[in-house]
Structure formats: C-alpha cells, structure tokens
Write a structure and sequence with these properties.
Length: 266
C-alpha cells in the first residue's frame, strides 16, 4: 500500500513543491488541499492561520483520509503555525521555510534577498533563520502579495499581466549588489522564468522545493513507508479547495473547513 501524502497551501502555489515530491516518489498516493477561501495567507493574522490548520487536521481525521504525512507547502503557514499544529496530531508534518541557508552559501557578492509575503517577512522564525545561517552576509527583505495573485492567474488561466509583474518587481527596488534571491513563497516559483528574465538572468533564484522532497523521503524511509511505494494501482491525485475553482486543469472537490469540537483548546 502506497504512502498517502497530503500537500497543503493557501492556493495553487504548493503544487511547485508537490511536483518536486512526485518526481522523487512517483508511486505514492497524493492529495492537494488549497485553502483558497483565505488566499493569500500572507494577508492573514497568525491566529487565523493556526485556526485554519487546526481545522485541516480535524477535516483529515473526521473524513478518515488516512494521511501518512502532511506537507505544509506554504512559507507563511509554516513560519506562523507549524509548532502549534504539530501539538495536536501525530501525523508527521513537513514545513516549508525560506531557503536562507543555501542562498548564503551560494552568494559571491555577500548580498542576498528574501522575497516573500508580509507575514513571512515579519515572522520571528524568519529572523532566526537569518541569524543562524546568514549572519555573515547582508540579507535584504522584500514582500509582495500581488505576486501571489499573478501566479494564481498564470496557473489557472495561462495569462500573465507582464506590465504589472514588471511594475511590482521594479517597485521592490532590489539592492543592486544582490546576486541570490530567495523565493520565499511557494507561489513565486510559478513565475521563476519571468522573474529571472526581468532581472536579465543576473540574479540566481532559489526555493525550497528540492529540500522539502529530501525531507519527505527521509521521514518516509524512517517510518518504513517508503519501502511500500512499489509500482501498482493507486488512486488519482485528489484536489480539495475551500472556495470555487474554475479550471479545466483540475477536478476539485469543494469542502468547508470547520472548527473542530475541541477548537477552543488550541
């Protein structure tokens, strides 16, 4: 029986992480859950995000989905709520955090930048990452919610307002000495090609997708579940969403996340 991996994000951005994992573990069973009713998470409070993730755990249990591992494929949710959610479930949870460490190791100019949502930029976890792994380089922080919306439109409609994209990136005023840019939101890799072209391929872009896939493999191997992922019949990828999704790409099951009975204890 294949391991069941659920990947969660506020929108479609987490599919960039899902793709990395599927490439490494093609025989697993996958579910993708997007809380698009609350998109973008970067505009939500920390408590709201904690509440939503607690409700996700309740949804998984109450519907007996038999999830073996959860990937919170959202930098904002991971930096805001991961520790709180791990306290209420025994399902292993892998979070996504900005790739500060590899960026600090790659830079030659000693100037790196983190581009993320406002909530990720403001989180204490992000500050700890920088202090632990990038104390010897200059780290400039930039935030954008508009890029999340542009990535969603590109994924679902195949359309990108390039003028708006360039305006958003110009407005960030990225420090000229920057040679490595961390894409600290899982939506942003959807725009990798366009962002790279905007900077005339002069800045190296890094994200956490490959590292997350490595972590998932490690945890499944440790639990013995990876050895069970042999070729055979498996269920198709199931998409869940909390708001209507109009797309020819995805067959989505619309669900409602509700507060669990013991919610006040969280």
């Amino acid at each position: 029986m294949s391991a069941h991996i659920m990947v969660f994000d506020s929108g479609i951005g987490g599919t960039t992480v899902l793709d990395h994992i599927k490439q490494r573990i093609p025989n697993a069973q996958y579910s993708y859950f997007m809380d698009n009713a609350f998109l973008p998470y970067g505009a939500q409070t920390q408590q709201t995000i904690i509440n939503r993730l607690c409700s996700l755990i309740h949804f998984i249990k109450s519907n007996k989905l038999n999830v073996d591992l959860i990937v919170i494929a959202c930098n904002t949710a991971s930096t805001s709520a991961l520790s709180a959610v791990r306290k209420i479930t025994d399902i292993p949870i892998v979070g996504v955090v900005p790739a500060i460490k590899p960026a600090a190791e790659l830079t030659r100019s000693n100037h790196i930048a983190l581009l993320a949502t406002p909530a990720t930029i403001a989180s204490s976890y992000t500050k700890k990452l920088i202090a632990q792994h990038a104390s010897n380089v200059t780290v400039n922080l930039y935030s954008s919610v508009e890029l999340v919306n542009l990535a969603e439109l590109l994924f679902f409609n195949g359309y990108l307002d390039t003028n708006k994209l360039h305006a958003v990136l110009e407005g960030l005023n990225i420090e000229k000495q920057t040679d490595v840019l961390v894409l600290g939101c899982t939506h942003f890799p959807i725009l990798t090609k366009q962002i790279s072209e905007h900077f005339k391929n002069s800045i190296q872009l890094v994200d956490s997708g490959a590292a997350i896939a490595n972590r998932v493999i490690y945890l499944l191997t440790e639990s013995g579940l990876l050895a069970q992922n042999i070729p055979g019949i498996k269920k198709p990828l199931q998409y869940y969403a909390t708001a209507n999704v109009i797309s020819d790409k995805l067959a989505v099951k619309l669900v409602k996340l509700i507060d669990p009975p013991e919610f006040e204890a969280y």
